[in-house]
Amino acid sequence: MTRQHDHSFAKPATSYAEQVAILERRGMRIDDRASAEFYLQHLNYYRLSAYWLPFEATHAPHAFVPGTRFADALNLYLFDRNLRLLVLDAIERIEVSIRSQWAYQMSRRHGPHAYLDAGLAANRGRWESDLAKLEKEVQRSDEIFIRHLLKTYSEKLPPAWAVCEIMSLGLLSRWYGNLKPMPTRSAIASVYGVNERVLGSWLHHLTTVRNTCAHHGRLWNREFTVTPLIPKTKPLSLQHQFQPGSRRLYNTLTILLHCMDIVAPRHSWRRRLKALFEQHSPPTRAMGFPPQWDQLQIWQ
């Protein structure tokens, strides 16, 4: 069936100077035209438009709230960019830790190549698909230790403690979620002080957050479709640090703070995150932050 189009795209491409003029006509204050043109050249008008959207009084026609400056939208963009880098930094450290736990518990309880055993999977179809993806990642890998293990031993894939090093967070999340032996799942989750269902949902959620960051997507006021479970009883104190029913970033940052305290007890991540907020003063409500969030225990 052919799609019927009402009209074709008729907007012409505009120069950087024309883009500045459009913003001025809509009521944006631009203190330094050359600087604004520079940022539009290197960041793209369409990309930046997501950051001046909160400053619009009306969307059709486009008109900004009186007093809106180009510098305000740019400040929000720079905040979001630095926030993505910080979030990626924490996710990397947590991912490395959970990979390590997955490999340790799997190999100690079920053998070095336990992940090749379809009997450990809750859903065999998903297990086969994940194994095929893992085989591709191993074939693509240029890691010396992977090449050495494949050449030296007869097994088609390396043991769990080696293969986990080239496993993506998405694949790790799927493997954990599809693991049938409850004691193994629980042993991994207990390291992070939560039950296995909560950890499974956190892994799934952090995979989507990581993918948003890796593709330079907007993070600060995003509503996530994959939301993490809030711990109800274990640990009891953590439940009250979350915002129930929220789809926004605040709950993600709460997870990262909790896990960072476990995997890197002497980390400076909390301080760096708070410093970023102080530097840019972003609208915290748009990120799902409660009033007086900095008084909560998780932020201390």
UniProtKB/TrEMBL annotation:
Key words, A-Z: DNA-binding
Molecular-function GO term, any one: DNA binding
InterPro entries named among the record's database cross-references: Abi_system_AbiD/AbiF, Abi_system_AbiD/AbiF-like
Keyword DNA-binding among record annotations: yes
Pfam families: Abi_2
Keyword presence, DNA-binding: yes
Superkingdom of this protein's organism: Bacteria
Name the UniProt record assigns to this protein: DNA-binding protein
